[in-house]
Amino acid sequence: MRELDGSSAGGQFLRTALTLSVLEDVPIRVENVRGDRDDPGLGNQHLAVLETMAEICDAEVSGAELGAETVEFDPGGAGAGGLAGGSYAVDIGTAGSVTLLFDALLPLATVLEAPLSVTATGGTDVEWSPPLEYFRQIKLPLLGAHGLVASCEVDRRGFYPDGGGRATLRIGPSSLEPLALERRGDLEGVRLYSTESASLADRDVAHRQLEGALERLDLAGAGRNADDGGLEVLERQERTAESPSPGSALVIRVDHGTGIAGFDALGERGKPAERVGEDAADAANRFLEGDAAVDRHMGDQLLIFLALAGGRVRVPRETDHVETSRALLEAFGREVDLERREEGAVVSRSPDLP
């Protein structure tokens, strides 16, 4: 059994550890779960990931209860023998993040023998996690370009505090290709996805968010030659969605020759809708001024796929998540190298390594 200490990490450490346990067919014991948080131990969303992973793998588990700070998980050979796939449903029970649950499941595509479908109820657009459109419009297309077979359908949005959103992740057996994201290709354009709950439609929140973003975005020339004509708006979507709670979200996607980057902001009570768009645009402008191939959040999320498929990824900066994830991957024999640059860093692993 692999002994792991989460005293200086959060929920991502546990989710990645569970995924690696299945992929490597190694039982794990995680102590001090979410030890660096003010409310350590399993929360609703972390418990949902644990229980879902256990059900898919028919794993043996101890510590599967709210507040538990020690968890044991034995996949029982599920990953080594290939996962059977199937259809599952999980209710997180709060506005706990649906997209973080889905994130933990995506790497299982590499050991699936048949398609896997998981329908989750919870928060689709909540703090400290990727909004649903980031997951659907940035992460899935980026990984899809490297061999991942996956799609996500949404039935209902779930904002804080009630959650109640529902989405379905479908994953097919996949063979990943090495990640080739060291150099940013020529900038192609931006896409904007603005969503409001039906309760906010009379205030035109989705439209105002989008307009705030467009006014702030540096489409004329940040990070580009002055004579290249600027950056084109390739797509703009405004959605009004049913949801138990009022809320809104804006996601900006930047397309370039070798990949995709994404930036987002959530609506808050008392925060003008235009400011939501401006916040996402500010993050996009900072990215455009540099030369990284992916945004900083995606840089964190790609490490496990880099460990599985190999390749090279240029990230805007070396975050705490990057360092924590590298140490965890090393504990499973999946070392990821890091080369610091004047701006950001390159994380890499040889595709020839087992």
Automatic annotation (TrEMBL):
InterPro entries: RNA3'-term_phos_cycl_insert, RNA3'_phos_cyclase_dom, RNA3'_phos_cyclase_dom_sf, RNA3'_term_phos_cyc, RNA3'_term_phos_cyc_type_1, RNA3'P_cycl/enolpyr_Trfase_a/b, RPTC_insert. Gene3D superfamilies: RNA 3'-terminal phosphate cyclase domain, RNA 3'-terminal phosphate cyclase, insert domain. Its EC number is 6.5.1.4. It is found in: Cytoplasm. Coiled coil: none annotated. One of its GO terms (biological process) is RNA processing. It holds the Pfam family RTC. The active site is at H321. Keywords: ATP-binding, Cytoplasm, Ligase, Nucleotide-binding. Belongs to the RNA 3'-terminal cyclase family. Type 1 subfamily. NCBIfam families: PRK04204.1-2 (NF003246), RNA_3prim_cycl (TIGR03399). PANTHER family: RNA 3' TERMINAL PHOSPHATE CYCLASE (PTHR11096), RNA 3'-TERMINAL PHOSPHATE CYCLASE (PTHR11096:SF0). This is RNA 3'-terminal phosphate cyclase. It comes from Natronococcus jeotgali DSM 18795. The lineage of its organism: Archaea, Methanobacteriati, Methanobacteriota, Stenosarchaea group, Halobacteria.
